[in-house]
Amino acid sequence: MRRLLSLGIATAVIGGLMSAAPLVAGAQGLAPAPAGKLHSQGSALVDEFGRTVLLHGVNNVDKEAPYLNAGDGLTVTPQDADLLAQHGFNTVRLGVSFDAIMPERGQIDDAYLGRVADTVDVLAARGIQVLLDNHQDGLSKPWTGNGFPAWAIEARPTAGEPNPGFPLYNLMPSMNRGWDEVWNNTHGALDYLGDALAALATEVRGKPGVMGIELMNEPWPGSPFLTCFPGGCPDFDRKYQAAMQKLTDAVRAADPAVPVYWEPNVTWNQLMPSNLANPPKTPPITDPNIVFAPHDYCIPSQLAIYLGLPEGLKALCTTTQGNTWANIDAVTERADIPTVVTEFGDGDPTVLANTLKRADERFVGWQYWHYSSIFGPGGGTDPFLGAIGPQLVRTYPQATAGTPGKMKFNADNGDFIYRYTPKSSTKPTEIYVSDLHYPDGYVAAAEGGTITSAPGARLVTVQASGTGPVTVKVNRPGSAGAELPAGDGDSGSAGSSGSAGSSGA
């Protein structure tokens, strides 16, 4: 059931001074503008108004036929889109399938592509950017996987070959032979996939809510996988990057402007670094609209979940996730491209908090795994009202009219602070205010700028007063609010210039 915002009574802050009269403010529901075009600009994602965009969202991936059928209990509906937007999510990683696009060799399923386009429209109308994720796990159905059509792969499991299931089926010799076919393009699998992705790009070309096309989910190296351990596999990554470029060229022929998302090979999830765009091992990335799309899973936690190993292994997650984020930094710094963490989250609250903290520190967007429709058969309850909600539903700057600086959000009490350096833009900075963290309303204040939204707005807008840094605070009434650490520019105090409001939540 969709959560309704309640009325709240809170004290308003005007220009940094406390108003004596209480302000009764019904929390204003979020009515986001339709999603607009995004593009890469160095390591940032930028909207058509020149603002730096930060993305918080979820995955919605349908791995089984019939794919993307309304009412199947998985695919997002208009009601799901409303719920996601109300909680401040502005992106969905929508799974698409090579198997569904081209169920027969060379034959495009136009009806399926139409359903993809319809789902994009539903989400984009609520201001939600859609990443079209060519999803595969376990290569193809002969291995109980999904993604590549069975006709595209000639290898098959051998008689009596054990299949240990996800994720260990990647070690099966027959599956590795199948992956070798892909990377060598032995029977044209990459050519056909390029044709399928080009058809997808053609179908959605011009739709402003399409933030990009992700070429392949969690690609496995095939037979060379052991060469990726313990320090990464530049020889395979050279072949892999060539395959990504081949697929990118196919997409570009259909849509020269759409952002294209590249994942590292999936030994990344086992803590191996990527050699994408790492000269002289691999070529630089010269396409100006490529986005890095890593995942952040904790392998010790995954071993406990999927293989039944001791829960105590999860204590290693802070260290192992630190390794993953160091690898993210290495790729994005040398390639100078944006990063969106397109999967994370396995039910372990420590893993979740580690990802969100590190993403905030770097101003990196993310898409949580996983959200399924709660408005399909059998219904359901809002999953964000449970334990994960206060972590994932956050106060954060969705669009910044300037260069982002430091940001902090306390998921326990809703204290938020953000500093940025303004630059010219045709629209103001927009900060989504969580609908879960302020039961008695919120107080917002700005230093170096003015809050121009109405009291109680779910989306706080900020206009810079000059060229100096702008600092924005949002917190519960009576809270001292967050502060930025010393050495991060000015003191981080807020309220000397600006206005604020309150809302129920």
Count of distinct structural domains: 2
Annotated CATH topology of the largest domain? TIM Barrel
Low-confidence segments, given as residue ranges, are 1-27, 489-505
| Class per helix and strand makeup | alpha/beta
How many β-strand runs?
A: 23
Region (Disordered): 473-505
Protein name: Endoglycosylceramidase
GO molecular function: hydrolase activity, hydrolyzing O-glycosyl compounds
Signal peptide: 1-20
Explain what you see:
GO terms for molecular function: hydrolase activity, hydrolyzing O-glycosyl compounds. Belongs to the glycosyl hydrolase 5 (cellulase A) family. The chain is of the alpha/beta class. It folds into two domains: 356 residues, TIM Barrel; 90 residues, Immunoglobulin-like (Sandwich), CATH 2.60.40. It contains ten helices and 23 strands. An eight-stranded parallel sheet has the order 11-10-9-8-7-6-15-13. Strands 5-16-19-22-21 form a five-stranded antiparallel sheet, with no helix packed on it. Helix 3 packs across helix 5 and helix 8 packs parallel to helix 9. The longest helix has 21 residues. The two termini are 16 Å apart. 53% of the residues are buried. The N terminus and C terminus are likely disordered.
